[in-house]
Amino acid sequence: MKNYLDEKPYPSGIRRELEERFLSFAFAYFPECGREENALPFIVRSKIHHTLDVCRIGEYIMENDPRWKNTSPEERFTGYCTCLAHDLSRFPQYRDFGTLRDELSFDHGEKSADILRKRQFLLPGFSAGELEKVIRAVGVHNKRSIPEEYPEEERLLAELVRDADKLSILKVVTDHFDRPEEERSKDVALNVPDTPGCTEEVLEMALAGKGVPYTAIRCVNDFKIIVFQWPGDLNFSAGAKYALEHDLFGHFASFLPAHPKMHLLVDMTMHSLQKLAGM
Questions:
Q1: Which domains, and CATH codes, for the chain?
Q2: pLDDT in tens, 140-159
Q3: What pTM does this model have?
Q4: Who is most buried in 8, 154, 174, 225, counting CB within 10 A?
């Protein structure tokens, strides 16, 4: 696994310190592995990679999106910390349940928020009120939508981690399907059967712009179709630009099953991204 700590230097050292703390937190749930990344289960290594990637994407959004233009360095640091902490519970989840499926274990957003609330993972320099903002954003990062009663002045933070999370997950699942079949982890595609074709109702709901619930997934190709509804949930033009610059959905489209209507789904997705990106 690529060492993201070496991706670029941080003169203050705070990111390196925090990311080392994060790695120590993750490895502590698998003491039999020491600090050997290759000894960890693939899905655990993937979640470490994913979290650090969410931090990088979050930074990209904060550096490039107009809505973050007038924010302070402190607000951006809070955004970074929220990205770092969003999936803390994935490690006890996999250790204790052998799965990352929330319906078979616990709500990982709420559990990650609880880890922060109980100070089981420490973020430096935050007052109790500032920490609560991070906790609230972490708690809703995996919900279908941000609750209406969510504090309006904190929505920017919650939207940041949700966008960065979705874009990074797309990279994770793309890497998964790029691998030979024998190297894939069933956890990535929710442990559903990898059968030919797709569920017609799932495709029709996606084409109609309706939110397809994960409970509707019957096979791996249904999961692939649902991925193409994610752009409709993006909040930042910079997030859409990131997806287009890295051709995230164009690459993932190569994994879709043959179907006479499938190109409509891809076209709809690309149009949605271009519109949000202002292109």
A1: 4-164 (1.10.3210), 192-277 (no CATH)
A2: 999 989 999 999 999 999 99
A3: 0.89
A4: 225
